[in-house]
Design a protein that fits this description.
single chain; Rossmann fold; 9-stranded mixed sheet; disordered N terminus
Amino acid sequence: MTHYSPDILNCLANLSSDEVFTSPELANRMLDLLPQELFRSSKTRFLDPCSKSGVFLREIAKRLLAGLEEQIPDLQQRIDHIMTKQVFGIACTDLTAEMSRRTLYCTKQANGEYSVASCFDDAQGNLRYMRCQHTWENGKCKHCGANRAQYDRVETIETYAYPFIHKSIKEILKKDMQFDVIIGNPPYQMSDGGGTGSSAMPIYQLFVQQAKKLNPCYLSMIIPARWYAGGKGLDDFRSEMLNDNRIKYLVDYFDSAECFPGIDLSGGVCYFLWDKKYHGLCEVTTHRHGNTTTLVRPLLEKNSDTFVRFNEAVTIRRKTLEKFQSLESKVSARKPFGDIVPKEKGDTKVYAWPENGFINRNEIRQNNSIVDQYKVCIAKAYGERGDFPYLVLGKPFIAEPKSCCTETYLVLDAFDNSIKAENMISYVKTKFFRFLVLLKKNTQNAPRGVYQFVPIQDFSHPWTDEMLFKKYDLDKDEIAFIESMIRPME
């Protein structure tokens, strides 16, 4: 009978989406992207600036133990050299500091009796945690943007003031240091006082930016993929990343569960390798429902300010660019008609959720000019979890003349006659249309920007997928990919 002893770090990796832990397998896939000679040098320094379980440092130490065997034959001397000179960590909290030390040193005290290292003179060793306070300016932390009302707490409560983005390396590690490799899995978000989930404030980009400031030779982090399209606090980061030709590898998981089993992160996740001396195209690997593709390409395609997520979609996107005018220019902003509050009576119908209503025309403050037109409307948000192939959008509908809608909906376009509106509906229902939306829609939210890649058509006649495939000269593989990703809209 075979005795099975599971790796505790595999178990931790499946706990929850509040603190996303990295499995040993995933940590090693990230380490595989690095030049392996780094693990055969006794001078290479590694830093995990956001250690949670200590898995990155443990797997690095294991590689160094093998790589330095000839240079430092004595096992204890080799361990002591690696632990004191080569692997360093900054924990996210006091608890994760103890957890990480148990993983790396086999005890929560680096200088303890059972520590694998024999030469530390303090309990923290090179895996340190420093309790920090936010620095408040105008109700926000100037380092991380935390809301003072939410995080100005007493000493006994966790403040989520992560050391790496609040203090200098010298303050945390007690000495100035230069690192060859910075690698880790940072915290993803903080509540901004308005709730959790999509209303929370992203924070992972601050760890990436702070790591770059330390000027390592290599930087690798695994982060949510929402940054591809920018959004809340991420527009500058998106531009910075997509225009940085030192990103040598990008590995993308459309479904986060393929990377973190049991964890649901809307928009998926990715990890990357940034190489200070590299300047060129990026090798992009995409994982999608068991399929993997790799393509060397620019992170930023022509006439785009976002990342084209699927490798198979790159040629499709390029083909649609000819004589291109984006539908985004026609789509309304949030609150198409202003702040609308439906009532029981009025001279103008209001499309709203959960019930339609009415309003007096003189109460409409925006887009009065299209109230008397035929408007093609669609829900501003549509979510689906694990429902593949994707529908992407809710069903469009026509709002007749003398009508408007609340912020539940966007107006895609408005027409003087119902025939053109019906023809646009036929276009929205095509797989082609919804596939192009999917390239920018990383969450259930579908604001105006997700229609950037969708070309405007002539709506004097209806549209079908066959007509669109022919118009843009898509080949059988491109058609098959669209068909595989999008399900019919009845």
